[in-house]
């Protein structure tokens, strides 16, 4: 069973108030999200600064958009399973272009996204893989401070410095823009659960690798 969410409810849960926490070095990071800023309608937020995270050849004949949350166990299972075969057999061979779009159930998923994006497109998928592999550890580490500390460890494993992580995680404007970007994308594609997929414009549910392969092969004309 996929994880489902009410779009506005999820956004509201993230947006209400701010959560003050400290970095691993003890210096205050401050509020990640401020209530006033999050009262804005997502439609009024300029999301053009958000970079699409893409794997595969730009001219691949099949495009898959994945909607996923870093705190979703079913998403972690997909990335540990079917995704590995899709990447090996279709993405790495130039047949599929994957566009990864984050969904935010909670502020922890948003924080994870900000860490994953902190290293830019070059490091995003590597950090994402580390997050999914260790999801059961960092997502259940305890309170917000403990979760932040675990997320920072993942960022540092990927080569990010403390100062870089501090700058990324205290960027309230970026956080607000990411929430608006998520809302716009989810509404446009009518996404209400994760993981969800759009294969060449057609919405499909999470499924075993064999079924994904059949869908992809059909789009390839095989």
Write the layout of secondary structure elements.
Blueprint: E1 3-4, H1 7-15, E2 20-22, E3 28-31, E4 53-55, E5 62-68, H2 73-80, H3 82-91, E6 96-102, H4 107-118, H5 120-133, H6 135-138, H7 144-157, H8 162-169, H9 172-188, E7 193-194, E8 196-199, E9 202-205, H10 209-219
Parallel strand pairs: 5-6
Antiparallel strand pairs: 1-7, 2-3, 4-6, 5-8, 8-9
Helix pairs in contact: 1-9, 3-10, 4-5, 4-7, 4-8
Task: Please give a structural write-up.
With 222 residues, the protein is an alpha+beta fold. The protein has a single domain, classed as 3-Layer(aba) Sandwich (Glutaredoxin). It contains ten helices and nine strands. The chain has helices at residues 7-15, 73-80, 82-91, 107-118, 120-133, 135-138, 144-157, 162-169, 172-188, 209-219, and strands spanning 3-4, 20-22, 28-31, 53-55, 62-68, 96-102, 193-194, 196-199, 202-205. The strands form three sheets. It has a five-stranded mixed sheet with strand order 4-6-5-8-9, sandwiched between helices. β8 and β9 (202-205) form a beta hairpin. α3 (82-91) packs parallel to α10 (209-219). It is globular and about 50 Å long. 36% of the residues are buried. Residues 7-39 have low confidence and may be disordered. This is Protein-disulfide isomerase. Belongs to the thioredoxin family. DsbA subfamily. Residues 31-221 form the Thioredoxin domain. It comes from Sedimentitalea nanhaiensis. Keywords: Disulfide bond, Isomerase, Oxidoreductase, Redox-active center, Signal.
């Amino acid at each position: 069973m996929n994880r489902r969410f009410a779009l506005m409810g999820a956004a509201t849960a993230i947006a209400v108030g701010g959560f003050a926490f400290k970095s691993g070095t003890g210096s205050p990071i401050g509020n990640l999200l401020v209530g006033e800023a999050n009262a804005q309608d997502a439609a009024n937020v300029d999301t053009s600064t958000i970079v699409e995270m893409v794997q595969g050849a730009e001219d691949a004949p099949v495009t898959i958009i994945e909607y996923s949350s870093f705190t979703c166990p079913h998403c972690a299972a997909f990335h540990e399973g079917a995704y590995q075969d899709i990447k090996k057999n279709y993405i790495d061979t130039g047949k599929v272009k994957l566009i990864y779009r984050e969904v935010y159930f909670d502020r922890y998923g948003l924080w994870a996204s900000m860490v994953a994006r902190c290293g830019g497109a070059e490091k995003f998928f590597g950090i994402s893989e580390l997050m999914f592999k260790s999801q059961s550890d960092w997502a259940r580490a305890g309170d917000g401070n403990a979760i932040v500390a675990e997320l920072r460890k993942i960022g540092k494993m990927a080569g990010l410095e403390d100062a870089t992580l501090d700058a990324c995680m205290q960027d309230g404007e970026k956080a607000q823009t990411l929430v608006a970007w998520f809302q716009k994308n989810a509404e446009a594609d009518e996404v209400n659960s994760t993981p969800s997929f759009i294969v060449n414009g057609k919405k499909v549910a999470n499924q075993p690798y064999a079924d994904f392969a059949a869908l992809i092969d059909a789009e390839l004309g095989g």
